[in-house]
Amino acid sequence: MKFTIRQDVLNRPLQRVANIVERRQTKPILGNVLFELKDGQLRMTTTDLEIEMQSSIVIEDVGMEGEITLPARKLVEICRSLPAEACLEFSLVDGRILLKAGRSRFTLSTMPAIEFPNIEISETLSSFTLAPGFLKQGIDRTAFAMAQQDVRYYLNGLLMEIHHEGLRFVATDGHRLAICDVSDGNERIEDQRVIIPRKGVMELSRLLSDYEGETTIALGRNFIRVAANGDSFVCKLIEGVYPDYQNVIPETGDKNAVCDRETLRQTLTRVSILSSEKYRGVKMRFESNTLTLTANNPEHEKAEDELPIEYIGDDLEIAFNVAYLIDALTACDGERVRFNLSDANSCCLIESIPDSRSRYVVMPMRL
Questions:
Q1: Is the per-residue pLDDT at 187 higher than 70?
Q2: Across the strands, what pairs with 303?
Q3: Which of 151-160, 193-202, 350-359 has the lowest mean pLDDT?
Q4: Which of 350, 352, 332 is nearest to 341 (CA)?
Q5: Residue 188: which pLDDT band, with cuts at 50, 70 and 90?
Q6: Is the dihedral of CA 70, 73, 77, 79 positive or negative?
Q7: Highest mean pLDDT range out of 7-11, 162-166, 363-367?
Q8: Cβ-based burial of 157 (10 A; exposed 0-12, middle 13-18, buried ≥19)
Q9: Is 77 exposed, middle or buried (0-12, 13-18, 19+ CB in 10 A)?
Q10: Are 309 and 290 in contact (CB under 8 A)?
Q11: What is the mean pLDDT of the segment spanning 6-16?
């Protein structure tokens, strides 16, 4: 194998595939990136056995085709340290990769390409195209509500529902629920539900920031594949039945509050400074035209703040985990938000105004 490529051409695709690589691997080969050079194209592949990431680049200066694996993170650091205009010359010599860039020389260990593992996936059941912005929007507005290391393994992922009107993304950790509906106006024939694991969701969100045009999404019984701009992202799905989240969404309550989203977010952030580090509770008192926020901690310190609101209903005092509220408000993109409430012991429904495609349900706390 021998080829030459500019640093600014290699750097971004290499970083994308290297993000999949764990710092600690069960097998040494999982710390490597597979280079396959054929027909003027360099295909780079990494995997952790649950996720596989590929990126392809056109190589104009090819000396010799071939395939080999080399240390992913070391190669990323080397590439990142070189100037954008540098020409990188790769050559396989005596089982090692010799990398030349100007006066710099690096010799990297390799492992045979035949040892590189492939993810076993089932046949494709359905596929469709979607603008990356729609896909990223659905993920970013809900992913924060996923559980982390919950014994109910299906909660450690994001539910994606495909139906004829569009896509719905759902995440919950048992204490809060996030729902986002997205639609590009195209009808889809088959209804399908898949649960994407947490790491796959976070990596996919990062990848979608780089993509333009359309992404092709393929679904199988045990995998999801997203392809765009010469990249291919494959992730194994979580097997299991996602809980019936529809039953968690509260019915319309008799108390409604509307306020400026950013003002409320900033006020909650200030008040949270003196909340209990363990419970992170904040009391919210809804009254005519005024919302009063109060937080206390075991050191007997107290924070209190007020902001104007539009409120319909009897006075109500209710407590929430302040971090859950801030997460929901950050995910909303409207200028104002609506709180729909019933009583101090019932869940609260938060919606963005005027865009109501994103909804958030938060359970109350006892303080």
A1: no
A2: 295
A3: 350-359
A4: 350
A5: low
A6: positive
A7: 7-11
A8: buried
A9: exposed
A10: yes
A11: 96
Tell me the whole-structure pTM to 2 decimals. 0.91
* All residues at 6 or more sequence positions from 146 whose CB lies less than 8 Å from its CB, including other chains: 155, 156, 157, 158, 171, 172, 173, 198, 201
Within 13 A of 216's CA, how many CA atoms are on the CB side?
10
* Structure-block tokens of residue 6: 């500019």
Give the Cα separation of 179 and 351 in Å (integer).
Answer: 10
Residue 270, phi then psi, degrees to nearest 5 = -65, -50
Over range 113-141, report the average pLDDT. 90
Q: How many residues does the chain have?
A: 367
**Residue located via tokens 């340290």:** 81
Report the distance separating Cα 93 and Cα 66, nearest Å.
Answer: 12
Query: What are the percentages of helix, strand and coil residues in the chain, rounded to 5?
Result: 20, 45, 35
Are 85 and 57 in contact by the 8 Å Cβ rule? The answer is no
Q: To which residue do tokens 């649950």 refer? A: 50
Helix (H/G/I), strand (E/B), else coil: 298: coil
